[in-house]
Amino acid sequence: MKTHDSIIKYGSLEDLGKEIKNHKPSGKMAIITDENVGGLLLDRVKSSLAAEGFDYLEVIIPPGEESKNGDTYLDILNKLAEAELTRSDGIIALGGGVVGDLAGFAAATYLRGVDYYQVPTTLLAMVDSSIGGKTGIDLDYGKNLAGAFYFPGFVFTDITLLKTLPFIEMKNGMAEIIKYGIIEGGSLWKDINENWDTKLKDIIVRCQEIKTRIVKNDPLDKGERKLLNLGHTLGHGIEKLSNYEVKHGLAVAMGIYEITAIASKKNWCSQERAEEIIKCLEKRPFKYEKNTAYSKDSLYEAIKTDKKRRGDSIDIIVPVEIGKCEIKTISMDELKELLNE
Ligand code: ADP
Ligand code: ZN
After folding, report:
1. Which atom of ligand 1 approaches the CA of 98 most closely?
2. For 57-110, how does the pLDDT look when each residue is reduced to its tens digit (9 = 90+)?
3. Atom 26 (ligand 1) nearest CA
4. What pTM value is reported for the model?
């Protein structure tokens, strides 16, 4: 790992080979992708690499969170070994968060670390998971329980790749964007609310910049980076209770609803601001819905096993203003009380 700085490049997928050449003059590239994304984009990536004289191999995994496990991870490592990939070669993660996390973890651990490049193809991966060096896999006992901080050489963003992304996956990423809007406020919040359709590209770039800045200040998640967990403590609980049927972003939106309601009741945040947040969540094109399926008690039980819990306390992220969130460390008993407010 050379740096905690996330470098983001923008361009058309056809330029990927050229950007890698600038970073790493020669070698073999292992393109890791899933079946869906591979079908859509693999040929373009291969020709872009071939044009710069790179040799390559492809590793294609089945799509979906089910692939983010130890078996697929070891399959990937074995394919890299079979192709005799060396330390002077590299890995390209072409896909959404699942591919990014898996390929990143493979890159972090294969031969104790080889260079890799993130090419996010979902909105969620573009604004969130591809930035910040978190890589990993799920274990039988929970999501992302094994992993490493390992930063890519760069993150390559081609926003036009979102054209083929199903709306439900767009919506999944939009929740993280609303999260950034609440954390940052200002013109980002205004554009999310008023200019979503016309300024999406600009909104994505600004979210990437915010994440890059926060991660640079706190790469290992010890302070400021925790702000990015707004909506996530409750969101992870909902995901878990639904057996991961509720997608991450949708659960995060529900988590933002709940924490905003709590913040308003406790007077941590004015009623007016809380209403502004709820209004944003409910309007087009987001149209998020509140959690009605899971009781406060079951939510509390699910959060108890969250990996963010430390002994008897847990950090919650509270919206105080649009553009100001606070990290509050509370006891598990206090959390129970808050949920039942
Ligand atoms: P996330 O980024 O939310 O973790 P995944 O990696 O699970 O998402 O991808 C979500 C789904 O979208 C998968 O089925 C994946 O194959 C598909 N997908 C990813 N990128 C694209 C794209 N650009 N166009 C169409 N489908 C895509
Ligand atoms: Zn998230």
Report:
1. 6
2. 999 999 999 999 999 999 999 999 999 999 999 999 999 999 999 999 999 999
3. 165
4. 0.96
